Amino acid sequence: MMSGMTWTAPEITRTDEPYLGDELTMLRGWLDYHRQTLLMKCAGLTAGQLRTASVEPSGLTLLGLVRHMAEVERWWFRRCAAGIDLTDLYSTPEDPDADFNDLSGDPAAAFAAFDQEVRLAREAVADLPLDHTFRRRDDEINLRWVYLHMIEEYARHNGHPDLIRERIDGATGD
Predict the structure, then answer these.
(1) pLDDT reported for residue 1
(2) How far is CA 151 from CA 14, 28, 69, 76, 154, in A?
(3) Buried/exposed code over 37-64 (b: 16+ C-beta within 10 A; e: otherwise)
(4) What is the residue-averaged pLDDT of the chain?
(5) d(CA 72, CA 54)
(6) CB atoms within 10 A of CB 4
(7) CATH number of the domain that 114 lies in?
(8) Which helix or strand (DSSP H or E) is residue 142 part of?
(9) How many Cβ atoms from other residues are within 10 Å of residue 85's Cβ?
């Protein structure tokens, strides 16, 4: 476990979102931009810093956000859109928010799981059209909605690391 060591980020190439392209290119580009933004905001921190909560009473941490987004990638792209029968990555019936709550594991494993879930999410929907539909509860949802929701999910959560980083080391960013 890397308690005081700095987490070494994989090479993070945050590419600007596309300005031109078809709908799928735009959606994938914006989603990748936000995925890389989350990783960029975690780079250079120790395991302890990745576990540092924003401010009481919140327990929100950068590590928890990475774990949560891995879980969300798995849920929407693989389980829902592609219909792959998978268990939750972190959450359990006893602790549905274990992605945020259980930070005892090695942060490097969480980042590896995030990278894997992003890769597998891409693969799972690579050949599906944006109009591909699936049912969730009583709702019919298409893949286009999943992309838009994921962009929204990252955009909403990517503001949190700025506050956490500012508390940890004063770093803020875009």
Answers:
(1) 41
(2) 15, 9, 11, 12, 5
(3) bbbbbbeebbbebbbbebeeeeebbbbb
(4) 90
(5) 21
(6) 8
(7) 1.20.120.450
(8) strand 139-142
(9) 6
